[in-house]
Amino acid sequence: VQLQACGGGLVQAGGSLRLSCAASGRTFSNYAMGWFRQAPGKEREFVAVINWSGGSTYYRDSVKGRFTISRDNTKNTLYLQMNSLKPEDTAVYYCAAVERRGYDSRASVYNYWGQGTLVTVSS
Prior knowledge:
Distance between the termini: 37 Å
Strand content: over 45%
Number of helices: 0
Structural class: mainly beta
Radius of gyration: 13 Å
Shape: globular
Helix content: under 10%
């Protein structure tokens, strides 16, 4: 499956962005999906993951209540709605896919990755 992420940009603290990840090439609903991010000088970390149907999600503690992961299997698209953004959310955000039904928060599990989209939150 090929993944194409978009929607990043520059936003002030407290603002919102919605990231999208368009999938092509395989049956999207066969894949659990995730959003990960990597800030300069830091390791890649998971942000949010979602199972094949969208019925089950999991977030890192620092984004709970601010970010929402969702998917539309009819449009082959994954989303990340980010509200109340903070400067510490600044990073390159990646979408990822793994051919399984249940989600996993470990980046090493995912074998398909999008190219990344930069989110910059100014204070």
